[in-house]
Every structure is written in C-alpha cells, then in structure tokens.
Design a protein that fits this description.
single chain, binds nicotinamide-adenine-dinucleotide, aldehyde dehydrogenase (NAD(+)), Aldehyde Dehydrogenase, Chain A, domain 1, globular, NAD
Amino acid sequence: MTSTVDLSARTSELLAAVGAAPLDHDSGLAATSPITGAVLGHVPLTSDVDSVIAAAADAYRSWSLVPAPVRGGLVRELGELLREHKDALGELVSIEAGKIVSEGLGEVQEMIDICDFGVGLSRQLYGNTIATERPGHRMMEQWHPLGVVAVITAFNFPVAVWSWNTVLALVAGDTVVWKPSEKTPVTAVAVQALFEEAARRAGVSPAVAQLVVGDRAVGETLVDDSRIALVSATGSTRMGREVGPRVAARFGRALLELGGNNAAIVCPSADLDLTVRGLVFSAAGTAGQRCTSLRRVIVHESVADTLVDRLGTAYSSLPVGSPLDSSTLVGPLIDEAAHDGYVDALERARKDGGTVVAGGERVRVPGAEDGVYVQPAIVRMPAQTDVVRRETFAPILYVMTYSDLDEAIALHNDVPQGLSSSIFTTDLREAERFLSAAGSDCGIANVNIGPSGAEIGGAFGGEKETGGGRESGSDAWKSYMRRTTNTVNYSSELPLAQGVTFL
Ligand code: NAD
C-alpha cells in the first residue's frame, strides 16, 4: 500500500480538494510524511510576522463589536465546510501526522463538534448578577472580548487544537494568529484555506484568523509581542517552561496545555475484558503520541499477572504499518528523534530493573523504509523510577503493582504531570474515592474509560507541569474573554460600600 501511493501527489490532490494553493515552491518549510519520510512539498515561511499581528490587532477593533450570535455565524460556516471536507482533511492529517485513517477523521470530527458547540455558545456568553449591600444598586458582571490570541500548536493534534482555541476565541470576539508545529504545516495550510472560505461566505475579513508558518522563533515573536493578549500554547513541558514566564513578564495571559503522564489504576473488581480494550486503545492508539496517552498502569497484585498476560496477547496482534492501510492500528512515530526517545527510555527502564514483556522493537514496513515504526512496548517495573515519572512520547506502557488503594493513589499522583487519569473498578467506593479531592490530582479523571479520547463538551487540560490551562467545552470560553464587574446606582442617594462615610 505504502509503496504504491505517491504521497506528494496525493497531498496535492487533497489540498486542491479543500481549496488550498498547491505547494509548488522550491523553498520554505519542507513538509514530510512520517509514513515514508517522503517530502510532501515546501510551505512558504511567513516573512513578516509583525504585519500579521498588526492586521489581527486592526481586525479586532471591528470584530469585537460584532454581536456574538453574528460571530457564531462565521463558526457555523466553518463547521459546514469541515463537514463537507472531512474525508480530505482527515486523510491529510493521516499523511502528515501519521494517524490511522479513523483517528485522522476523528480529529476532524472533533473540529466539527467544537464548531457546533461554538454556534450555541455564541448565544450563551452569560455573566452573573450579584446581590449588593447598597440599596437602589445593582451589581453584575459582563464578559467582553479580550484581544488578539496567539495559538501555538503541537504536531500530534495538528488541526483539532487550532479549532478548540479558534472557535472559542472567535465567538468571544477575539482575533487569532496561529503558529502550527513546524512538523505539520500542510494540514495548517488546508485548514486556513477552509477558514478563509468560511470567512468569505460569512462576509467577514479573513484577518480575524490568520496563519504564520515558521519555526520556534516565530512562536517566540508571538510570545513576546504585547499586542497579543493571550498566548494559548500546546506542546511539551519544556516549551511551556519557556513560554509561561515570558508571557508573564509582559503581564500577558498564557493558557498552557503541556505534557502528560497518564495512568490507570486497575482494581481487583475490574471488568477485565473492558479494561484490556480501554488500556490498549489508550496506550497503543496514535502510537502513544497523544498528550493523554496511557503511560502507566497501577494494578492490584491479585490481578497483575492475568492483566499483563492479556495485554501481552492483545499487543501481539496489533497491526503496525502504514496508517493509510485500513487494517493498521499503530502508525509511525513522528521522526527519528521520537525513536531515540523510545529506545533510550526502554534502556533506562531495563537498567532500573524493568522487564520488557511485549514489543520494544523497531518494525520495518515494506515500502516505508524511512518511516519510523515500532512495536508498542509493555514493561513491568519494580518501582516508579525516574524514567517512568517523565513523559516519553512513544508507545511504552509501564506496569506497576499495588496492594492497597491509598498506595495506588499515592503512586498515581507521584509524577510531575497532571493531565488525565482513570480507574477501572466495579466498586462504587473505589471509584468515588478516585474522583474525590483525595484521589486523582489530574484535570481529567475517568472511571472505566482509559485516559485518552476526550469529548469536546468538557473542559480539557491538566494540573502541575501540564500547565493548568483549560480549553474546549464547559466554561473554558472564559479564558478568551475579560470580565468586568459593574455596579449601577439607580437611587438618588450615594451610600458607600462597607458603611464608609465621606462628604
Ligand atoms: P513542542 O513543545 O516541541 O512544540 C509545540 C509547539 O511549540 C510548536 O509549534 C513549536 O514550534 C512551539 N515552540 C517550541 N518552543 C517554543 C518557544 N520557546 N516559544 C514559542 N513556541 C515554541 O511539542 P511537540 O513535540 O510538537 O508535541 C508533543 C508535546 O505536546 C507532548 O509533550 C504532548 O504531551 C504535548 N501536547 C499536549 C497537549 C495538551 O493539551 N496538554 C496536546 C497535544 C500535545
């Protein structure tokens, strides 16, 4: 399959299908596919980031005054176009990010879902009214647009994370400048073309959401620019450690969505059929390259051997190969550096007394010699050592045992990251304890579902080194707006708060 598809030609067809300009440039950012390592084309670099920011700041002045339900009309057009072009964009995601087709399509579906959410939200930007202590007064809060939002995204969700941020920002009355990962510029160009068509149909200036293509330095320009009110940055904890203080230094706002080290606790009462399916999808799906990928299993000692045997059996039948092949479940790693990280982590785990019980090898896929494919690994660990406590962005699942739930929860929380988590149990007390304040310390905590695969309706994000940001559903929109508290005196007196007398 891989050898018979010319990925560069197919990319051109798909770009044409979504109305994007062809990549017929000789220079610029070279876009490659992790499927074969093939160069897909060159994406022009943005030479004048300053002008883009200026145009976004200018567009903000009028866009912020458009009534929110009318702003929702632009998001509705975008959602319709994404529905129409779901297959083409999903395939592009597979080609450029290496996701299996079903996950590439799922990522586009997530964009459609957030557009639906955004249209409804555009009529629900509510504030509170609050009881005042003064007679003849009314106190209320209003939410106003914030300004220009920079959206910096990672390679592994090359299109959905843009939409989580951009849809909320546009509905909120903000304008957007997007810097995608340098590893996935082609999908960004495709999304931008669809957005510009949506803007044309809605009669809105495309300057309300623009794209800048370039490396980390372009991201740094956005981070340091005081015309940008909010920097929403998704990526590694290393990146967040640089971005957070720089934005804070100019009193900007940062919304950080960083690395995870997600675990599942498996209790003695767990339904093992369901558990094994949930764990395998979360750990091996997307070749372990989700921020929410399952990386640690903490299993009760009474069921540990059975669980590991069953996981091993499931892992031995996982088809690794081209993500465009419909039978594949595990596609490639993004690049050789990711493979180095995989090999290094396995070596360290072995040194720490770990035993690799499944996978751990590189896989050669015919016709894709320059693609980086690995067999997802399971490693039994005697303890939660340093290598287990850090995020390795590859499919390695560490298994540790526990004897009582307090110990399991302590082990669960004893990592620097705090994104997603889960417990598999049929015991109500165990489940509720895990969800309580004394349980998981993560932003997402699930019962009888693995840690990956969130829906857009809930707020998404995590604590500790994951950065504390919340995107997507629930009231995450508040991050993209500024709150004003208003007190109105409709009486003819001037009573002062706290009973203060003056004049
Ligand atoms: P990365 O940190 O290498 O890059 C992410 C983005 O940040 C890229 O666009 C990059 O150009 C930019 N960047 C890097 N350094 C920067 C700086 N100093 N200033 C401004 N911009 C900078 O991450 P990656 O390898 O593309 O993605 C994988 C990582 O992202 C993993 O750690 C994963 O857990 C994390 N991630 C987190 C979430 C989440 O929602 N929490 C979602 C997806 C991915």
